[in-house]
Amino acid sequence: MNDILQALYNHVSIRRYTDKPVAEETLQLILKAACSGSTMGNMQLFSVIVTQDDAMKRKLAPFHFNQPMATEAPLILTFCADFRRFNRYCEFRQADTEAYSNRQSYQWAVTDALIAAQNACVAAESLGLGFCWLGTITYNVDKFVEVLELPRHVIPVSCVTMGYPAEHPALTQKLPVEAFVHRETYHDYDKETIDRLYAEKENSEETRQILEENQLDNLAQVFTQRRYTRQDNEHFAQVLEDTLRRQGF
Amino acid sequence: MNDILQALYNHVSIRRYTDKPVAEETLQLILKAACSGSTMGNMQLFSVIVTQDDAMKRKLAPFHFNQPMATEAPLILTFCADFRRFNRYCEFRQADTEAYSNRQSYQWAVTDALIAAQNACVAAESLGLGFCWLGTITYNVDKFVEVLELPRHVIPVSCVTMGYPAEHPALTQKLPVEAFVHRETYHDYDKETIDRLYAEKENSEETRQILEENQLDNLAQVFTQRRYTRQDNEHFAQVLEDTLRRQGF
Question: Which of B27, B61, B167, B205 has the fewest beta carbons closer than 10 A?
Fold first, then answer.
């Protein structure tokens, strides 16, 4: 076991931060890590929008459903799939500027943006910062495009709040590693396997509390009936689809 | 500068590997890192297909366009966006099994899969292994679904070859960090900025060789006319779209 593994294993999302600002020097170390990852054909198809201004945080907050960390975090990094820069390069070099206006190319840029985002997160933790991903970034993607003034061929795909931790939560309860691993081909899950994999989670005190609060029988119903319902998901899927088209993908 | 930053900054893709196999214990350390990252609502929406069998590597190789590393690497990890496991959980707990059959939910699972993949890569490097991402995984996604026997709601999004390095390439030439960073809002690229950001890359010996081999004027044309043409991209975008629909997203 080395320090890097230890750091990865001990990751826990931090949602409350101290007042200590993130120094520019620290930010630069994080951004350099974001830019050091693997990238499709070395095209580096992402951008990072750095949010530090309080007025801008308040402007973005409603689209993050006013989660407290969206205004309380000293630093917010929004990672975008970005073919704009590369297309501008093509434009100024007499090359096809519409070769990447499609969903295959979008997928490459999403991949580059998420590798960059996760690298930034690992770097931030190594510098004593905590972070939390905001899933809301892909929900209200049309609004983020507008407020962040993203041009055609740029779409936000991940958003991370960062700051120095004002809380020290325990590790999140996860499924056992074997739940995710398939050897050579996919092996489907039967009821017995699902029961076994979810047993620890279902029997925890945390789950008991959630079920009591929600007055529901199990976690699956909490997800499908409260947290992420079909109706909401289908609505936000349409927003994402419309925004992808409008942004040229 | 700490060890973790140093490791992230020194990343370089490794395409040639020694014969040394990856021990099961090492694989488990890597897989644990993959499972330790952030995840949407703690739903953990990914799976990893572990390929170590030579016959399976040969079966998959044509869809990776027979890149040598697709058969020569001792280990291949294919990370999939996976709502199957969660939907099976819903099915066995009398909850809605179609709440996540949409592109918003797909985007969450893609995010989880890529966080897991990048964590696995960082872990692997810390253990002395090298790796390289295979972009081909999203090109021939229909074939990978078939050969890896992926059920509905499972789609491969990233594929990484891993092994002990038999080469030690220099760091890849990247754009300067400032190329990716936007403060508060997006600042579009004018010709002067593009010229400046790409100058070092365009003036390198590596670029001179590429242009000579391709008999083209600049790198933008190498990308749009040779490596990733509009025609190919649009074809593979259609394959991806068809496969996403067929897999229930």
Answer: B205
Contact status, residue B153 vs residue B2, Cβ threshold 8 Å: no
Cα A226 to the center of its chain, rounded Å: 21
CA nearest to B182 within chain A: A49
Asked if B221's CB is within 8 angstroms of A95's CB, the reply is yes
Residue A101 lies in a domain: yes
Beta-strand ranges (E) seen in A18-84 are: 46-51, 75-82
pLDDT (mean) for A217-227: 96
Residue A31 near residue B181 (C-beta atoms within 8 A): yes
Is residue A155 in a domain?
yes
In this prediction, what percent of chain B has a pLDDT beyond 90?
Answer: 100
Q: Is it the case that residue B6 has pLDDT exceeding 90? A: yes
Query: Is residue B150 assigned to a domain?
Result: yes
How close is the nearest chain A Cα to the Cα of B153, in Å?
A: 12
Structure tokens at B88: 């099976």
Chain B partners within 8 Å of A180 (Cβ): 31, 34-35, 44, 46-48, 82, 116
Mapping DSSP onto H, E and C, the string for chain B reads CCHHHHHHHCCCCCCCECCCCCCHHHHHHHHHHHCCCCCHHHCCCEEEEEECCHHHHHHHHHHHCCCCHHHHCCEEEEEEEECHHHHHHHHCCCCCCCCCCCHHHHHHHHHHHHHHHHHHHHHHHHCCCEEEECCHHHHCHHHHHHHCCCCCCEEEEEEEEEECECCCCCCCCCCCHHHHEEECCCCCCCHHHHHHHHHHHHCCHHHHHHHHHHCCCCHHHHHHHHHCCHHHHHHHHHHHHHHHHHCCC
Other Cβ atoms less than 10 A from the Cβ of A231: the count is 8
The answer to whether residue B216 sits within a structural domain is no
CATH number at residue B38: 3.40.109.10
Work out the pLDDT band at B1, boundaries 50, 70, 90: confident
Domain extent, residue B146, equals 3-168
- Per-residue pLDDT of A63-96, as tens digits, reads 999 999 999 999 999 999 999 999 999 999 999 9
**pLDDT tens, residue by residue, B42-68:** 999 999 999 999 999 999 999 999 999
Instruction: Give percent of chain B with pLDDT exceeding 70.
Output: 100
- For residues B29 and B82, what is the distance between their CA atoms, to the nearest angstrom? 21
**B148 neighbourhood in chain A, CB within 8 Å:** 182, 185-186
Question: B148, A185: Cβ pair inside 8 Å?
Answer: yes
Integer Cα distance of A221 and A207 in angstroms: 12
Q: Residues of A with CB below 8 A from B236's CB?
A: 104
ipTM value: 0.98
